[in-house]
Amino acid sequence: MGAFQKGTALWPGGIVPYQPNENHPFWSVILKAINEMNNKTVVKFIEKTVQPDYVYFTSENSGNWSITVGKAGGPHQVNIDKNVRSLHELGHVIGLVHEHQRQDRDNYIEVHREFIDSNNEWNINNVINTTEIEYETEYDVHSFMHYWDTAGVSDKVKNKELAKRIATGIATIGISEMKDHVEGRSMVYKRDRRMHIVTSEFLSPLDIYCINNVYNNYAPTS
């Protein structure tokens, strides 16, 4: 489960107003992510009425991102230009940081910096010190806040045949071969090197536990 960083502004009462945008090309995907959060946690995304602090969704050709982690104050932009990982960005909206950037991550995953494009290093290599963390659960490779295992990989590496094999079905590679050939993957799960790490479109049990615990015990009431 992703961690909450100290000083991150949480949404009072777990209520996150949002501006509907039915013209967004991936609005149905965004609504599925909102429903996943609303149905399984104490955090509730509600349609905006007069609230000055709210989330709005854009579709600029610049990837999926949230303008900040936690409540920004005023309009809070979330950009979604792909039909995947909308839930991940909602995680940032409510205050979660990346699972794979926790300080204890090296106990669970190998990070292969040699395959990562320099422009993407900051989103994978940087580690959040434990002293900066407000709350976390045990490491969860299935968390929706964990990046997929080819995230950040450079185009040069992606174009190699082994990278293609890994991206399309790593079961084609034997476990003995996988141990030595990780090219094409920025992250490898140590407990099961054959496992394909994905960014889930659903909340894991630890995701749900962590979000509920933090918002029940740490979020302001108003």
Report on this model:
The protein is an alpha/beta fold and 222 residues long. The chain has two domains: 108 residues, Collagenase (Catalytic Domain) (3-Layer(aba) Sandwich); 91 residues, no CATH class. The chain is built from six helices and nine strands; from the N terminus they run ββαββββαββαααβα. It has a five-stranded mixed sheet, with helices on one face. A two-stranded antiparallel ribbon has the order 1-8. A hairpin with an 8-residue loop joins strand 5 and strand 6. The longest helix is centred in the first third of the chain and has 14 residues. The chain is globular, with a radius of gyration of 18 Å. Its EC number is 3.4.24.-. GO terms for molecular function: metalloendopeptidase activity; zinc ion binding. InterPro entries: MetalloPept_cat_dom_sf (IPR024079), Peptidase_M12A (IPR001506), Peptidase_Metallo (IPR006026).
